[in-house]
Amino acid sequence: MTTVPCKQLAGVIDQIENCDEIFHIPSNKEDEGMGLCAGAYMGGKRSAIIMQNTAIGVTINTLVTLIQYYHIPLPMLISYRGELGEPVACQVEMAVHTKALLSQLNIPTYHFHKADEVNELDAILEYCFMCKKPVAILTDASFWKGA
Question: What is the extent of the structural domain holding 51?
C-alpha cells in the first residue's frame, strides 16, 4: 500500500501506518506511488494507492503508459476534494474535471458519499484484480464525516 499525504485521509493513513498486516510505503507524489504499485504487482503482490483527486491530471501519463498498458490492477482510494463545503478554493477547479478525466481514460469510478457504501469495497476490489484494470474509488467529505 502506498499513500500520498492528504489532510482529508490523514486518519486512514495513520491507521495504515500503524497496522502490522499492511506493508506501507509512503510516496511523495502520486505517479511515484503508482510506480511502486506497479513494481509490487510485477513482484507478485497486490497493492493500492491512497491519493487526492487534485493529482489525477499529473498521473494521466503513468496511468495510461504503465498501469493500463501493462494491465496492472490498481485500486485508487481517492479523496474527492473541491465539492460543496470545500474550504480551499484551488481544490474546486480539479473537482470539476476529475470524473470526466477518469471517464475519458475508461477507468471504472465509484463515488462513496455515505459510510455504508464501504460495503461495496470487496466487490470493487475483486473486480479490479479480476479484470486487471485500475479502479477509482472517490470518497468525499460527507463520506468521511459519517465514517
Answer: 2-146
